[in-house]
Design a protein that fits this description.
Shape: elongated
Structural class: mainly alpha
Number of domains: 2
Oligomer: single chain
Distance between the termini: 42 Å
Number of helices: 12
Largest sheet: none
Length: 211
């Protein structure tokens, strides 16, 4: 009979779910007391998973600050980026920028995932120039974009009628050896069909095999 080796994963899933319920349904004073009583060794994975359950934004921020003071725990690029996403989704761009500045001051690693998140939410908030500056900063820092980064930036440009720039980014992605994914093709199709382009134009953009 094989040993039952999935229990730790189930336990952690249940623990994360329990923490989410504490943050969602309790006042912060009550939540803080309950969190202190949990038999948990806080680490980046656990904290990140809690934040990814998307508790109410205010509670997420209070939790982020509280756990940052727990002995032996330190926030890293992953927990910061997830908190950035929460602020961005809530339209709290100034708070998102504040966290990004903290990451820089603390010397935390800032990768393409973080930059992509920031430029996405800046664009969503109407700051297209800020999104462009974020992309340029990422490239200037020697941070190599992923297919997700390229696709997100292309969408920002196409959605704001910056067609030549979007086309140049797509060509740069191909030249760098990064293959488009399904989402990349979707972004291209949305632009081409929305602009009334012919089907042959689509194949000129997407000459690589469709995923």
């Amino acid at each position: 009979m094989k040993p039952f080796d999935v229990e730790p994963k189930v336990y952690m899933r249940d623990t994360i779910s329990n923490i989410y319920k504490i943050l969602k349904y309790s006042t912060w004073e009550s939540a803080e007391t309950q969190l202190k009583q949990l038999p948990i060794r806080w680490d980046s994975f656990t904290v990140n998973q809690v934040l990814k359950t998307h508790p109410p934004m205010e509670k997420a921020w209070l939790f982020f600050n509280w756990v940052g003071k727990v002995k032996s725990f330190k926030h890293d690029q992953f927990t910061y980026t997830t908190m950035l996403d929460i602020f961005g989704e809530a339209g709290r761009v100034s708070s998102m920028k504040y966290l990004f500045q903290q990451m820089q001051e603390k010397g935390l690693k800032i990768d393409a995932v973080t930059y992509t998140s920031i430029l996405h939410w800046l664009s969503k908030g109407g700051d297209v120039d800020g999104a462009v500056e974020t992309w340029e900063e990422m490239r200037g820092k020697g941070c190599f974009p992923t297919v997700v980064s390229y696709t997100a930036y292309m969408k920002v440009l196409f959605d704001n009628q910056r067609v030549k720039e979007g086309t140049a980014v797509y060509k740069e992605m191909l030249q760098s050896g990064i293959s488009p994914n399904c989402h990349t093709y979707t972004v291209l199709m949305e632009y081409l069909f929305g602009a009334g382009k012919l089907m042959k134009d689509y194949f000129e953009y997407c000459w690589l095999p469709v995923c």
